[in-house]
């Protein structure tokens, strides 16, 4: 499952859970409880609170570890020793991408910068979904490392608003099959 | 615990207070409707149901962004003022100054956008404002920024007056936050939640506005002396510190309405607790530090900065959020809640906040941000908690107030219809944005790829319902505020004593 679909599923599930919780409380909100029931409800909610808090803590620590133990962004200062290097420069309103053919199966280092204002360098896979992105900022060069698995034509779109020609600021590059693959 | 009175004497609106409150509220609801119409135009433009030229689209987007953020600030400032003045002595002139500065600032924004062609959006990301490529001049950008400065100064006046008033009563801001009770001591059960929340907002939003003022002045200097170039990354950092803080503050000002009103409608006291004080103390610090999550795709920043962005955005809103959800939901669970407009809106606002936080947190994760940053996932999550969270908080107070004027808690047949229209429209509208984000539809684009227009169309339909609902609320509230106050308490009057 690609990441976007996973995230969408988690979001829908999480929001539905919240909705169910609210529906439950709302259905009970107009039915006053007697003293015994109130005490019981207070006890239940205390237990619930502890569980909720514990669950949150576990999710928090787990999610942090799972998403960060292999840091998803390449080191920006050390030399990366990557064979395929692509220089990317954005300007109002076009991209300059050299070379514009890379090979699948081994990492590609994109060195992304801008000549004028902020742009966003986003790589759209042939299926129309974003594969990776970084900012193109004047005065800075951001290194984006990505390993392509699918050969094909990839579309580059600008994801940081940069004026009138922002939406049509589109380009392409080609990913060819891995050597011997 | 003070007795639960529906309309306590110290919240009465009379004379100048009433006029000022009416000005705030009527301006806010009118602006909400107008800005929503602009939003609808953009959404229908993306759906290709309307022909909107790109230059007009980006000017409308600039107006909608700045206008909505400003109006949300205006409406929730009225909420904070309404409840805070019952506990400390606020000066009416400060509240009115903020309003006047807001109008002057708004006039600058409108002039810059619709006369001078400014289209560099509400975030004025350097150096775009001075790089209009002939569409707008640096002068237009300067007028826009001047508008922001005026609005910011107005807010500062209001906050500083509030800070002074709080210090007069509580000695210092720390005691107002209740820091003295974090570890020991018996918490004064009458210490108002309103004061705790207001103090947090004052501290964090004053810092945010000052960061904004710094970058605005830097950008203004640069607009007139282009040779004084700025560091783009530093400018971006300051802008997001300010922008994020400002819009976040609206939820912390708005939630005051829930703290103050919910117990009156549920008939059950809503006591202050140590967990409550802890949550606000922690969030005061975290909320000021959460902005780096806007910069996760700026790889040039040090790694610890990105990690902090992820960790803090997991943790920032969370304490207040959890404690509020838990407290509010147990407050109404099996209580004798009266389902009238204010209580319905409060419950809706809690839902909007709780559900909206799910996609927000996901996007704060670096790995997710890598594929979701600047897609419509972003407007998806913030419209969710603004439309279904912040606005309902402010609307709850407005309906509460017109209930007193009318002599009956608002609960007409039209009310009972208007709210679901707004809610269902809001859900369709925001979920369409989130779905678009999941499909990698970029945000802030006047023209969409043909394969993107499906979610645009669904979103437009949702938006139409939201506009209808809001239009109804706006008329209802305006009419309700302008009628002469009813004598005495409404029928259902004093407190809701059951439970
Ligand atoms: C009927 C209600 C609304 C509609 C139809 C609407 C529509 C839109 C649209 C189409 C966009 C641009 C999305 C894109 O980037 O592609 C947008 C952005 C935005 N909206 Fe709304 N909106 C509504 C309500 C609100 C409310 C209530 C608020 C705040 C209180 C708000 C604040 C914003 C902000 C801050 C932006 C970002 C502007 C930017 O990207 O620079 N909107 N809205
Ligand atoms: Cu762009």
Walk me through what this model shows:
Chain A is α+β, with helices and mostly antiparallel strands. Chain A has 2 domains: 3-68; 84-176, Cupredoxins -  blue copper proteins (Immunoglobulin-like). In chain A, 34% of the residues lie in helices and 31% in strands. Chain A has 2 helices and 9 strands; from the N terminus they run ααβββββββββ. Chain A has a 5-stranded mixed beta sheet with strand order 3-9-8-5-6, with no helix packed on it. In chain A, strands 2-1-4-7 form a 4-stranded mixed beta sheet, with no helix packed on it. In chain A, strand 5 and strand 6 form a beta hairpin. The longest helix of chain A is centred in the first third of the chain and has 34 residues, at 35-68. Chain A is elongated and about 75 Å long. Chain A starts with a helix and ends in a 5-residue tail after the last strand. Chain B is mostly helical. Chain B has one domain (2-482): Cytochrome c oxidase-like, subunit I domain (Cytochrome C Oxidase, Chain A, Up-down Bundle). The longest helix of chain B has 35 residues, at 232-266. Chain B starts with 14 loop residues before the first helix and ends in a 17-residue tail after the last helix. Chains A and B meet through helix 1, helix 2, strand 5, strand 6 and strand 7 of A and helix 2, helix 7, helix 9, helix 10 and helix 11 of B. The complex binds protoporphyrin IX containing FE and copper (II) ion (CU). The site of copper (II) ion (CU) has 7 residues of chain A, from loops.
Provide a short characterization of the protein structure:
With 181 residues, chain A is α+β, with helices and mostly antiparallel strands. Chain A contains two helices and nine strands.
CATH superfamily of the largest domain in chain A, by name, is: Cupredoxins -  blue copper proteins
CATH class of chain B: Mainly Alpha
Helix proportion of chain A: 25-40%
Kindly state the percentage of residues in helix of chain B. Answer: over 70%
Radius of gyration of chain B using CA atoms only: 22 Å
Helical segment count of chain B: 15
Mean pLDDT of chain B: 90
Architecture of the largest domain in chain A, CATH level 2?
Sandwich
CATH topology of the largest domain in chain A: Immunoglobulin-like
Note the main sheet of chain B: none
User: Which spans of chain B of ≥5 residues are poorly predicted at pLDDT below 50?
Assistant: 489-499
Please give the order of strands in the largest beta sheet of chain A. Answer: 3-9-8-5-6
Quaternary structure type: heterodimer
- Write down the overall geometry of chain B: globular
- The proportion of strand residues of chain B reads under 5%
Name the CATH class of the largest domain in chain A.
Mainly Beta
Number of strands of chain A: 9
Number of helices of chain A: 2
The stretches of 5 or more residues of chain A where confidence is low (pLDDT under 50) are none
């Amino acid at each position: 499952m690609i990441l976007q679909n996973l995230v969408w599923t988690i979001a829908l599930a999480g929001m539905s859970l919240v909705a169910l919780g609210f529906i439950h409380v709302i259905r009970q909100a107009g039915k006053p409880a007697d003293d015994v029931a109130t005490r019981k409800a207070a006890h239940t909610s205390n237990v619930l609170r502890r569980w909720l808090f514990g669950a949150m803590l576990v999710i928090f620590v787990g999610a942090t570890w799972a998403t960060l133990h292999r840091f998803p962004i390449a080191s920006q200062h050390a030399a990366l020793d990557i064979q395929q290097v692509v220089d990317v420069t954005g300007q109002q309103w076009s991209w300059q991408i050299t070379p514009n053919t890379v090979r699948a199966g081994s990492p590609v280092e994109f060195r992304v910068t801008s000549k004028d204002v902020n742009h966003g360098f986003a790589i759209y896979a042939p299926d129309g979904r974003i594969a990776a992105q970084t900012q193109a900022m004047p005065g800075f060069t951001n290194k984006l490392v990505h390993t392509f698995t699918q050969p094909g034509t990839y579309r580059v779109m600008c994801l940081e608003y940069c004026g009138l020609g922002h939406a049509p600021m589109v380009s392409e590059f080609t990913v060819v099959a891995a050597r011997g693959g | 615990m003070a007795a639960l009175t529906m309309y306590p004497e110290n919240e009465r609106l009379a004379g100048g207070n009433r006029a000022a409150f009416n000005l705030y509220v009527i301006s806010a609801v009118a602006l909400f409707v107008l800005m929503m119409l602009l939003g609808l135009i953009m959404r229908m433009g993306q759906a290709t149901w309307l022909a909107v030229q790109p230059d007009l689209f980006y000017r409308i987007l600039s107006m909608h962004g700045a206008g909505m953020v400003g109006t949300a600030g205006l409406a929730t400032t009225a909420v904070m003022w309404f409840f805070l003045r019952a506990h400390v002595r606020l000066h009416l002139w400060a509240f009115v100054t903020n309003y006047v500065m807001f109008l002057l600032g708004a006039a600058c924004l409108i002039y810059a956008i619709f006369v001078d062609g400014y289209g560099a959006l509400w975030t004025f990301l350097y150096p775009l404002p001075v790089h209009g490529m002939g569409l707008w001049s640096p002068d237009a950008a300067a007028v826009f920024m001047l508008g922001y400065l005026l609005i910011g100064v107005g807010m500062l006046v209001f906050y500083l007056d509030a800070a002074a008033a709080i210090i007069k009563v509580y000695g210092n801001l720390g005691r107002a936050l209740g820091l003295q009770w974090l570890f020991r001591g018996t918490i004064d059960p009458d210490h108002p939640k309103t004061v705790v929340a207001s103090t947090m907002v004052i501290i964090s939003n004053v810092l945010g506005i000052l960061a904004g003022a710094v970058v605005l002045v830097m950008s203004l200097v640069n607009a007139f002396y282009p040779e004084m170039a700025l560091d783009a990354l530093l400018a971006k950092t300051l802008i997001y510190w300010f922008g994020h803080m400002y819009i976040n503050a609206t939820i912390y000002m708005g939630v005051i309405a829930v703290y103050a009103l919910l117990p009156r409608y549920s008939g059950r006291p809503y006591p202050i607790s140590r967990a409550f004080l802890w949550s606000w103390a922690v969030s005061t610090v975290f909320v000021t530090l959460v902005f780096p999550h806007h910069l996760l795709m700026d790889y040039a920043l040090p790694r610890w900065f990105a990690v902090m962005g992820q960790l803090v955005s997991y943790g920032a809103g969370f304490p207040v959020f959890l404690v509020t959800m838990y407290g509010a939901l147990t407050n109404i669970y099996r209580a004798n809640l009266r389902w009238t407009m204010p209580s319905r809106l409060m419950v809706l606002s809690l839902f909007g906040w709780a559900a909206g936080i799910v996609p927000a947190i996901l996007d704060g994760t670096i790995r997710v941000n890598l594929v979701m940053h600047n897609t419509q996932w972003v407007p998806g999550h913030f419209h969710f908690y603004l439309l279904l969270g912040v606005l309902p908080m402010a609307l709850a107070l407005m309906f509460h107030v017109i209930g007193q004027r009318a002599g009956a808690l608002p609960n007409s047949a039209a009310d009972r219809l208007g709210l679901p229209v707004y809610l269902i429209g809001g859900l369709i509208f925001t979920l369409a944005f989130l779905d678009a984000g999941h499909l990698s539809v970029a945000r802030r684009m006047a023209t969409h790829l043909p394969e993107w227009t499906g979610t645009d169309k669904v979103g437009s339909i949702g938006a139409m319902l939201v506009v209808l609902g809001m239009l109804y609320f706006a008329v209802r509230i305006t009419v309700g505020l302008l009628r002469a106050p009813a004598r005495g308490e409404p029928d259902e009057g004093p407190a809701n004593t059951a439970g």
